[in-house]
Amino acid sequence: xxxxxxxxxxxxxxxxxxxxxxxxxxxxxxxxxxxxxxxxxxxxxxxxxxxxxxxxxxxxxxxxxxxxxxxxxxxxxxxxxxxxxxxxxxxxxxxxxxxxxxxxxxxxxxxxxxxxxxxxxxxxxxxxxxxxxxxxxxxxxxxxxxxxxxxxxxxxxxxxxxxxxxxxxxxxxxxxxxxxxxxxxxxxxxxxxxxxxxxxxxxxxxxxxxxxxxxxxxxxxxxxxxxxxxxxxxxxxxxxxxxxxxxxxxxxxxxxxxxxxxxxxxxx
Length: 268
Fold this sequence. Notes:
CATH class of the largest domain: Mainly Beta
Radius of gyration: 34 Å
Helix content: 25-40%
CATH architecture of the largest domain: Beta Barrel
Strand content: 15-25%
Number of domains: 2
Structural class: alpha+beta
């Protein structure tokens, strides 16, 4: 019977050190791979950090300067976040059939109704305008009827440009009900819309026509030039980069501990 146990005299006198294990080719190659992965994570963190800091924030009160509508947004474009609530001026002609009431509108925490209209600002270009607020549906309907009877009159509107609130599904018992200020939803009920360019944003008029109350539309809050969510993401990428090195260290140490155990078992 052959004894396959190692010869104690042939065993090294001391087990390998952790440093010796880490300097082996296998683990140096693994370290190089971790460096590449950590470098990618570091680049992603730097990219997030660059996005987190606005080096050219809007000046305080910039939204209160009245600008031409076309300088702020174009038909079909999404409204830039920095432009939300900007006061603008535009001129156009009302489409008499398209004064529509929108429900669930609040003025100083009082629920009521908005009367909206289609303002034709160019040959085949329109923007939705919220003209004013009414406390009851009867008042809103009466104001809308009076505006429609006035016909296709020209108007100059000064107000805030605000992003689309999105389309909501109306209740089954009232498919014509509108509870959000959405140019997309209003467009489905407008007239003469073939080949019509429409602004995605809408205007909240600063002055209401007779029979309606001015819409309360305070200036938007001034935002911090630092986006803390992006800062958090950048910190996450830094943690991931550190974890890549820790994983390499942990794997190498596990290998070293196994070799030490094998050495002690062989010595025993």
